[in-house]
Recover the amino acids of this structure.
């Protein structure tokens, strides 16, 4: 679907997608930290698709389970009980990623 | 004001304040990373008072300017132009903290 | 899923879940009023899972249909037309609960 | 300012303002409960002006301090630490109202 | 479902639904512009059902693809990357509407 | 302040600011319509600084008072009573702009 948007969308949309990709690259902060930042922002803004995306990236960056749960805990305290359904979604996605890695 | 809330507020409120303090302590992730998580969450949720709080904590954790601007950049891309007034607030607070540190 | 989170999650997450359970208990305000507060908060924050949860609790607290619709009306006026899909969800859940109670 | 809006604004805006006034009147639920619903909704949506308005109305409806803090506690748990600046605002407004009542 | 709400809901809810219908009628601004306003508001508030509704209305008002993508671009820049899942939804809905129109 | 951010901020932030400026330029839709879109998005997201910015741009684009109030009405219905303080702010800004234009 993103490809469709990039084919049909205008120049401004394409440039935004570029910014969105580049912002998580290694820089003064390592890519791993940036993916954690993307994850907590997605959680407090309650966007399941964005949570899924950053969970996958975080797993690739070798984020451990205790690290994950500390990020989720911060999101939960900052964003409140209203984030709980998205916390559940995050934990499900994490389990799925761990299973795939084992198989 | 927080003290007033803690004096007059009920047990549930006090316990929440405790959780809120503890969640940024060193753990699997260092306190510095956690403060960056708190900062980006505050920025995308557009809370100036929370941004101020986490800027001060980040400065104490020796976050550098390039690191700060990378966090703010992620907040800006995730949260959109609607976060710009809070980005401005963050940069003002950062400047104030840097000036105080010099004097 | 909540159990999984409670098993695998850290202490901070567990404590938050405790606070979240206790906050709706009878106190200076009766549990019924607190569930109505939880429902209106869930509606204006547009969280379907949370709306479902509080509808079920409200039905157990013997909230009547006219009371329900007054709460939903407040949520609608405060939160605007953007809450309408969640209002629809609330009414569907309510009908389901009423049917179950009859059977 | 509201008067200016009502004078200059169009019919749709005026009708909305009417709905907004009527929704908190006594009905199946008493006005007091409705003001508590308005307060918690304002807190989780983080609107200081709306919090102020409903605190004043709640004080007129004889809401007690323990009742107030239970409502604020629910708002805090549902909306997270991001609501704390608005919780502080609520407690300040409450103190002001109590002082005025005494004098 | 809306009919059910209108049958069972109270007078305040019905009046709100009326306001919601009338606000997009031709006036000082043409209906087409108003539907575009409804679309961008739905996108930045991230409500897929509302996006669907306004896409359908916009197609009926003969909004062209370049016009659509300019509105979506504004929503994306204002609301940030968190709106991307809803942008994808909007483009899918648009494609579906275009296909139906051809058949 | 924006200049400071542009001087000190990183490349990603500068590029975002560019996108944010360009997105309101004349295109398939006229600049005037785009400013109205920016205004309604700012209102429903409840950002006073953004509302001020777009009111000024709209006045320059010769938006009339009846047009303004129709946009504000849409924002009010979509975003609910929680937008009222920002609606008040918008009307104040509009009055100020009209006065300046006369003097």
């Amino acid at each position: 679907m993103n490809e469709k948007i990039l084919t049909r969308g205008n120049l401004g949309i394409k440039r935004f997608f570029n910014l969105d990709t580049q912002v998580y690259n290694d820089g003064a902060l390592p890519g791993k930290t940036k993916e954690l930042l993307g994850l907590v922002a997605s959680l407090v803004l309650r966007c399941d698709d964005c949570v899924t995306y950053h969970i996958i990236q975080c797993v690739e960056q070798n984020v451990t389970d205790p690290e994950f749960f500390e990020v989720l805990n911060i999101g939960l305290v900052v964003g409140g009980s209203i984030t709980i359904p998205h916390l559940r979604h995050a934990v499900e996605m994490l389990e799925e990623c761990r299973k795939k890695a084992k198989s």
Observations:
- Residues 84-102 of chain F form the longest helix (19 residues).
